[in-house]
Protein backbone atom coordinates (compact mmCIF):
# COMPACT_ATOMS: atom_id res chain seq x y z
CA UNK A 1 0.00 0.00 0.00
CA UNK A 2 0.97 3.63 -0.50
CA UNK A 3 -0.20 6.40 1.82
CA UNK A 4 -0.61 10.00 0.69
CA UNK A 5 -1.64 13.01 2.80
CA UNK A 6 -4.37 15.15 1.27
CA UNK A 7 -3.59 17.95 3.76
CA UNK A 8 -7.37 18.48 3.61
CA UNK A 9 -6.79 20.31 0.33
CA UNK A 10 -8.72 19.16 -2.77
CA UNK A 11 -5.95 20.13 -5.19
CA UNK A 12 -3.35 18.20 -3.18
CA UNK A 13 -5.62 15.16 -3.00
CA UNK A 14 -6.41 15.18 -6.73
CA UNK A 15 -2.72 15.48 -7.63
CA UNK A 16 -1.78 12.64 -5.27
CA UNK A 17 -4.54 10.37 -6.61
CA UNK A 18 -3.57 11.03 -10.23
CA UNK A 19 0.03 10.08 -9.50
CA UNK A 20 -1.00 6.93 -7.61
CA UNK A 21 -3.15 5.84 -10.55
CA UNK A 22 -1.08 7.00 -13.53
CA UNK A 23 2.41 6.25 -12.21
CA UNK A 24 1.92 3.50 -9.62
CA UNK A 25 -0.96 1.68 -11.34
CA UNK A 26 -3.31 1.82 -8.36
CA UNK A 27 -6.83 0.47 -9.05
CA UNK A 28 -8.32 0.92 -5.56
CA UNK A 29 -8.16 3.66 -2.95
CA UNK A 30 -9.13 3.81 0.70
CA UNK A 31 -10.79 7.19 0.58
CA UNK A 32 -10.42 10.19 2.86
CA UNK A 33 -12.30 11.36 5.92
CA UNK A 34 -13.42 14.68 4.45
CA UNK A 35 -16.35 14.90 2.04
CA UNK A 36 -14.71 18.04 0.68
CA UNK A 37 -11.87 15.85 -0.56
CA UNK A 38 -13.94 12.86 -1.67
CA UNK A 39 -16.08 14.99 -4.01
CA UNK A 40 -13.20 16.26 -6.17
CA UNK A 41 -11.63 12.79 -6.24
CA UNK A 42 -14.86 11.28 -7.58
CA UNK A 43 -15.56 14.01 -10.13
CA UNK A 44 -12.00 14.61 -11.33
CA UNK A 45 -10.08 11.36 -10.96
CA UNK A 46 -11.30 7.99 -9.73
CA UNK A 47 -14.53 7.47 -11.70
CA UNK A 48 -13.04 8.57 -15.03
CA UNK A 49 -10.02 6.35 -14.49
CA UNK A 50 -12.08 3.35 -13.39
CA UNK A 51 -10.70 3.17 -9.86
CA UNK A 52 -12.84 1.89 -6.97
CA UNK A 53 -12.84 3.93 -3.77
CA UNK A 54 -14.14 3.03 -0.32
CA UNK A 55 -14.23 6.13 1.87
CA UNK A 56 -13.84 6.10 5.61
CA UNK A 57 -15.78 9.07 6.99
CA UNK A 58 -17.15 11.13 4.08
CA UNK A 59 -20.83 11.33 4.90
CA UNK A 60 -22.20 13.89 2.43
CA UNK A 61 -25.56 12.88 0.91
CA UNK A 62 -24.31 14.33 -2.38
CA UNK A 63 -22.49 11.06 -3.08
CA UNK A 64 -25.70 9.06 -2.70
CA UNK A 65 -27.34 11.35 -5.25
CA UNK A 66 -24.36 10.99 -7.58
CA UNK A 67 -24.74 7.21 -7.34
CA UNK A 68 -28.47 7.45 -8.06
CA UNK A 69 -27.67 9.42 -11.20
CA UNK A 70 -25.08 6.87 -12.32
CA UNK A 71 -22.18 9.30 -11.93
CA UNK A 72 -20.08 6.99 -9.72
CA UNK A 73 -20.45 3.98 -12.08
CA UNK A 74 -20.68 1.64 -9.09
CA UNK A 75 -17.11 2.50 -8.04
CA UNK A 76 -18.01 4.28 -4.79
CA UNK A 77 -18.62 2.75 -1.35
CA UNK A 78 -18.47 3.99 2.22
CA UNK A 79 -18.30 2.06 5.46
CA UNK A 80 -20.30 4.42 7.65
CA UNK A 81 -23.79 5.89 7.22
CA UNK A 82 -24.46 8.98 5.12
CA UNK A 83 -25.64 12.34 6.50
CA UNK A 84 -29.21 11.48 5.60
CA UNK A 85 -29.11 9.06 8.54
CA UNK A 86 -26.32 10.51 10.67
CA UNK A 87 -27.76 14.04 10.89
CA UNK A 88 -31.13 12.61 11.96
CA UNK A 89 -29.43 10.55 14.68
CA UNK A 90 -27.57 13.69 15.78
CA UNK A 91 -30.84 15.63 16.03
CA UNK A 92 -32.33 12.90 18.23
CA UNK A 93 -29.17 12.88 20.36
CA UNK A 94 -29.42 16.66 20.82
CA UNK A 95 -33.11 16.54 21.69
CA UNK A 96 -32.63 13.63 24.11
CA UNK A 97 -29.83 15.63 25.78
CA UNK A 98 -32.39 18.32 26.61
CA UNK A 99 -31.41 20.95 24.06
CA UNK A 100 -34.36 22.84 22.61
CA UNK A 101 -32.93 25.80 20.67
CA UNK A 102 -29.72 25.07 18.80
CA UNK A 103 -27.42 27.44 16.91
CA UNK A 104 -25.47 25.95 14.00
CA UNK A 105 -22.03 26.81 12.67
CA UNK A 106 -21.26 24.71 9.61
CA UNK A 107 -18.46 24.28 7.10
CA UNK A 108 -19.38 25.87 3.79
CA UNK A 109 -19.22 22.74 1.63
CA UNK A 110 -21.57 19.94 0.59
CA UNK A 111 -21.05 18.05 3.82
CA UNK A 112 -21.82 21.05 6.02
CA UNK A 113 -24.78 22.23 3.95
CA UNK A 114 -26.42 18.80 3.66
CA UNK A 115 -25.83 17.88 7.29
CA UNK A 116 -27.25 21.09 8.73
CA UNK A 117 -30.29 20.86 6.46
CA UNK A 118 -31.06 17.27 7.49
CA UNK A 119 -30.45 18.14 11.15
CA UNK A 120 -32.80 21.12 11.08
CA UNK A 121 -35.67 19.12 9.56
CA UNK A 122 -35.28 16.33 12.12
CA UNK A 123 -34.78 18.61 15.13
CA UNK A 124 -37.87 20.65 14.28
CA UNK A 125 -39.90 17.46 13.78
CA UNK A 126 -38.90 16.46 17.31
CA UNK A 127 -40.20 19.77 18.64
CA UNK A 128 -36.94 21.69 18.80
CA UNK A 129 -36.16 25.13 17.43
CA UNK A 130 -33.19 26.57 15.53
CA UNK A 131 -31.43 29.84 16.33
CA UNK A 132 -29.04 31.32 13.78
CA UNK A 133 -27.35 29.18 11.13
CA UNK A 134 -23.91 30.45 10.10
CA UNK A 135 -21.56 29.04 7.46
CA UNK A 136 -17.78 29.44 7.51
CA UNK A 137 -14.81 28.94 5.23
CA UNK A 138 -11.89 26.95 6.65
CA UNK A 139 -8.40 27.98 7.82
CA UNK A 140 -9.28 31.40 9.23
CA UNK A 141 -7.19 32.74 12.13
CA UNK A 142 -10.35 33.72 14.01
CA UNK A 143 -14.08 33.02 13.83
CA UNK A 144 -15.32 35.87 16.01
CA UNK A 145 -17.73 37.19 13.39
CA UNK A 146 -19.34 33.78 12.78
CA UNK A 147 -19.53 33.04 16.51
CA UNK A 148 -21.12 36.38 17.39
CA UNK A 149 -23.73 35.92 14.69
CA UNK A 150 -24.48 32.34 15.79
CA UNK A 151 -25.02 33.47 19.39
CA UNK A 152 -27.90 35.74 18.38
CA UNK A 153 -31.32 34.35 19.18
CA UNK A 154 -30.45 32.97 22.64
CA UNK A 155 -29.58 29.34 21.77
CA UNK A 156 -29.11 26.80 24.54
CA UNK A 157 -26.53 24.80 22.55
CA UNK A 158 -24.23 24.92 19.55
CA UNK A 159 -24.13 22.31 16.79
CA UNK A 160 -20.58 22.69 15.50
CA UNK A 161 -20.29 21.15 12.04
CA UNK A 162 -16.58 21.62 11.75
CA UNK A 163 -13.27 19.78 11.74
CA UNK A 164 -10.91 19.52 14.72
CA UNK A 165 -8.45 22.25 13.70
CA UNK A 166 -11.04 24.92 12.91
CA UNK A 167 -13.35 23.60 15.59
CA UNK A 168 -10.79 24.31 18.31
CA UNK A 169 -10.59 27.97 17.20
CA UNK A 170 -14.38 28.26 17.04
CA UNK A 171 -14.76 26.76 20.50
CA UNK A 172 -12.19 29.21 21.85
CA UNK A 173 -14.19 32.15 20.49
CA UNK A 174 -17.54 30.68 21.57
CA UNK A 175 -16.37 30.17 25.14
CA UNK A 176 -14.57 33.53 25.18
CA UNK A 177 -17.75 35.37 24.22
CA UNK A 178 -19.77 33.54 26.88
CA UNK A 179 -21.81 31.25 24.65
CA UNK A 180 -23.95 28.52 26.27
CA UNK A 181 -21.99 25.44 27.27
CA UNK A 182 -24.17 22.86 25.55
CA UNK A 183 -22.52 21.37 22.47
CA UNK A 184 -23.38 18.89 19.73
CA UNK A 185 -20.64 17.49 17.51
CA UNK A 186 -20.76 15.44 14.29
CA UNK A 187 -18.75 12.36 13.40
CA UNK A 188 -15.20 13.50 12.79
CA UNK A 189 -15.01 15.76 15.85
CA UNK A 190 -14.65 12.82 18.23
CA UNK A 191 -10.91 13.27 18.17
CA UNK A 192 -8.84 13.24 21.38
CA UNK A 193 -6.57 15.90 19.83
CA UNK A 194 -9.56 18.26 19.61
CA UNK A 195 -10.43 17.66 23.25
CA UNK A 196 -6.78 18.13 24.18
CA UNK A 197 -6.76 21.63 22.70
CA UNK A 198 -10.20 22.71 23.95
CA UNK A 199 -10.02 21.04 27.36
CA UNK A 200 -12.19 18.31 28.84
CA UNK A 201 -13.89 20.72 31.22
CA UNK A 202 -15.04 22.94 28.34
CA UNK A 203 -16.94 20.13 26.62
CA UNK A 204 -18.28 18.29 29.65
CA UNK A 205 -21.79 19.01 28.38
CA UNK A 206 -20.84 18.17 24.82
CA UNK A 207 -22.36 15.28 22.89
CA UNK A 208 -20.61 13.47 20.04
CA UNK A 209 -22.35 11.28 17.46
CA UNK A 210 -20.57 8.25 16.08
CA UNK A 211 -21.63 5.17 14.14
CA UNK A 212 -21.96 2.39 16.68
CA UNK A 213 -19.34 -0.35 16.65
CA UNK A 214 -20.95 -3.63 17.70
CA UNK A 215 -18.56 -5.59 19.86
CA UNK A 216 -18.02 -8.29 17.23
CA UNK A 217 -15.01 -10.65 17.27
CA UNK A 218 -13.49 -8.28 14.68
CA UNK A 219 -13.87 -5.34 17.03
CA UNK A 220 -12.30 -7.18 19.93
CA UNK A 221 -9.36 -8.41 17.84
CA UNK A 222 -8.59 -5.08 16.22
CA UNK A 223 -9.03 -3.14 19.46
CA UNK A 224 -6.38 -5.35 21.05
CA UNK A 225 -4.12 -5.07 17.99
CA UNK A 226 -4.39 -1.27 17.96
CA UNK A 227 -3.45 -1.12 21.62
CA UNK A 228 -0.54 -3.53 21.25
CA UNK A 229 0.79 -1.88 18.11
CA UNK A 230 0.37 1.78 18.74
CA UNK A 231 -1.22 2.29 22.19
CA UNK A 232 -4.32 3.65 20.46
CA UNK A 233 -8.00 2.95 21.04
CA UNK A 234 -9.89 1.81 17.96
CA UNK A 235 -12.80 4.17 18.74
CA UNK A 236 -10.52 7.07 19.65
CA UNK A 237 -10.58 9.03 16.42
CA UNK A 238 -12.60 9.67 13.26
CA UNK A 239 -12.46 7.00 10.62
CA UNK A 240 -10.49 4.39 12.58
CA UNK A 241 -13.09 1.61 12.64
CA UNK A 242 -14.60 2.44 9.25
CA UNK A 243 -11.15 3.07 7.76
CA UNK A 244 -9.93 -0.31 8.93
CA UNK A 245 -12.87 -2.05 7.28
CA UNK A 246 -12.40 -0.06 4.06
CA UNK A 247 -8.81 -1.28 3.83
CA UNK A 248 -9.73 -4.87 4.62
CA UNK A 249 -12.48 -4.99 2.00
CA UNK A 250 -10.15 -3.76 -0.73
CA UNK A 251 -7.37 -6.11 0.37
CA UNK A 252 -9.71 -9.12 0.36
CA UNK A 253 -11.11 -8.05 -3.01
CA UNK A 254 -7.59 -8.01 -4.47
CA UNK A 255 -6.91 -11.47 -3.01
CA UNK A 256 -10.22 -12.77 -4.36
CA UNK A 257 -9.39 -11.42 -7.83
CA UNK A 258 -6.04 -13.20 -7.75
CA UNK A 259 -7.60 -16.48 -6.62
CA UNK A 260 -10.33 -16.26 -9.27
CA UNK A 261 -7.80 -15.39 -11.95
CA UNK A 262 -9.40 -12.10 -12.98
CA UNK A 263 -7.80 -8.69 -13.42
CA UNK A 264 -7.91 -6.37 -10.41
CA UNK A 265 -9.63 -3.56 -12.29
CA UNK A 266 -11.78 -1.09 -10.41
CA UNK A 267 -14.98 -2.61 -11.80
CA UNK A 268 -13.94 -6.17 -10.88
CA UNK A 269 -12.89 -5.10 -7.40
CA UNK A 270 -16.23 -3.33 -6.90
CA UNK A 271 -18.03 -6.52 -7.87
CA UNK A 272 -15.89 -8.56 -5.46
CA UNK A 273 -16.43 -6.09 -2.60
CA UNK A 274 -20.13 -6.84 -2.86
CA UNK A 275 -19.50 -10.59 -3.05
CA UNK A 276 -17.32 -10.75 0.07
CA UNK A 277 -19.80 -8.82 2.19
CA UNK A 278 -22.60 -11.35 1.77
CA UNK A 279 -25.38 -11.65 2.67
CA UNK A 280 -24.65 -15.22 1.63
CA UNK A 281 -21.42 -16.93 2.61
CA UNK A 282 -19.50 -18.12 5.65
CA UNK A 283 -18.77 -15.45 8.23
CA UNK A 284 -15.16 -14.32 8.51
CA UNK A 285 -13.66 -11.75 10.84
CA UNK A 286 -10.71 -9.39 11.09
CA UNK A 287 -7.24 -10.31 12.27
CA UNK A 288 -4.63 -12.69 10.92
CA UNK A 289 -6.62 -15.83 11.75
CA UNK A 290 -9.76 -14.35 10.20
CA UNK A 291 -7.94 -13.42 7.00
CA UNK A 292 -6.33 -16.85 6.77
CA UNK A 293 -9.77 -18.43 7.08
CA UNK A 294 -11.16 -16.07 4.42
CA UNK A 295 -8.37 -16.90 1.97
CA UNK A 296 -8.79 -20.64 2.53
CA UNK A 297 -12.53 -20.42 1.86
CA UNK A 298 -11.97 -18.37 -1.29
CA UNK A 299 -9.40 -20.91 -2.52
CA UNK A 300 -12.04 -23.62 -2.02
CA UNK A 301 -14.44 -21.66 -4.20
CA UNK A 302 -16.75 -20.79 -1.30
CA UNK A 303 -18.52 -17.51 -0.59
CA UNK A 304 -17.55 -15.40 2.41
CA UNK A 305 -19.26 -12.60 4.34
CA UNK A 306 -16.82 -10.32 6.13
CA UNK A 307 -18.03 -9.05 9.52
CA UNK A 308 -15.99 -5.96 10.24
CA UNK A 309 -15.05 -3.79 13.15
CA UNK A 310 -18.13 -1.71 12.31
CA UNK A 311 -20.27 -4.88 12.31
CA UNK A 312 -21.88 -6.75 9.41
CA UNK A 313 -21.48 -4.68 6.24
CA UNK A 314 -24.35 -4.57 3.77
CA UNK A 315 -24.03 -2.09 0.90
CA UNK A 316 -27.15 -0.87 -0.85
CA UNK A 317 -27.14 -0.27 -4.61
CA UNK A 318 -25.67 3.19 -4.06
CA UNK A 319 -22.72 1.96 -2.00
CA UNK A 320 -24.19 3.15 1.32
CA UNK A 321 -24.53 1.27 4.59
CA UNK A 322 -27.07 1.60 7.40
CA UNK A 323 -26.54 1.04 11.10
CA UNK A 324 -27.00 2.13 14.68
CA UNK A 325 -25.37 5.18 16.26
CA UNK A 326 -23.61 5.91 19.51
CA UNK A 327 -24.25 9.09 21.51
CA UNK A 328 -21.01 9.77 23.36
CA UNK A 329 -19.48 12.11 25.90
CA UNK A 330 -15.84 12.55 26.82
CA UNK A 331 -15.16 11.19 30.28
CA UNK A 332 -11.89 10.39 32.04
CA UNK A 333 -9.76 10.59 28.93
CA UNK A 334 -12.01 8.63 26.55
CA UNK A 335 -15.19 8.88 24.50
CA UNK A 336 -17.85 6.83 26.26
CA UNK A 337 -21.22 5.75 24.94
CA UNK A 338 -24.00 7.25 27.01
CA UNK A 339 -26.90 6.21 24.80
CA UNK A 340 -27.51 4.01 21.78
CA UNK A 341 -29.60 5.29 18.87
CA UNK A 342 -30.92 2.42 16.79
CA UNK A 343 -31.72 2.45 13.10
CA UNK A 344 -35.36 2.04 14.14
CA UNK A 345 -35.07 5.25 16.21
CA UNK A 346 -33.67 7.07 13.18
CA UNK A 347 -36.37 5.76 10.86
CA UNK A 348 -39.07 6.93 13.30
CA UNK A 349 -37.72 10.47 13.17
CA UNK A 350 -37.48 10.30 9.37
CA UNK A 351 -41.15 9.28 9.38
CA UNK A 352 -41.98 12.32 11.51
CA UNK A 353 -40.14 14.57 9.05
CA UNK A 354 -42.03 13.05 6.15
CA UNK A 355 -45.35 13.26 7.99
CA UNK A 356 -45.88 9.49 8.07
Discrete helix count: 13
Fraction in beta strands: 15-25%
- Give the helix level as a range of percent: 40-55%
Total E-strand runs: 13
The radius of gyration over CA amounts to 20 Å
Spatial ordering of strands, largest sheet: 5-4-6-7-8-12-13
Describe this entry's structure for a reader.
By secondary structure, the protein is α/β, with parallel strands linked by helices. It contains 13 helices and 13 strands. Helices cover 45% and strands 18% of the residues. The strands form three sheets. Strands 5-4-6-7-8-12-13 form a seven-stranded mixed beta sheet, with helices on both faces. Helix 4 packs across helix 5 and helix 10 (240-260) packs across helix 11. It is globular. It starts with 9 loop residues before the first helix and ends with a helix. The mean pLDDT is 94.
Give the secondary structure arrangement, pairings included.
Elements: H1 10-22, E1 28-30, H2 35-46, E2 52-55, H3 62-68, E3 76-78, H4 83-96, E4 101-107, H5 110-125, E5 129-136, H6 144-151, E6 157-161, H7 164-176, E7 183-185, H8 192-198, E8 206-211, H9 217-230, H10 240-260, H11 266-275, E9 282-285, H12 288-299, E10 304-308, E11 311-312, E12 325-331, E13 334-341, H13 343-354
Parallel strand pairs: 1-2, 2-3, 4-5, 4-6, 6-7, 7-8, 9-10
Antiparallel strand pairs: 8-12, 10-11, 12-13
Helix pairs in contact: 1-2, 4-5, 4-13, 5-13, 7-8, 10-11, 10-12
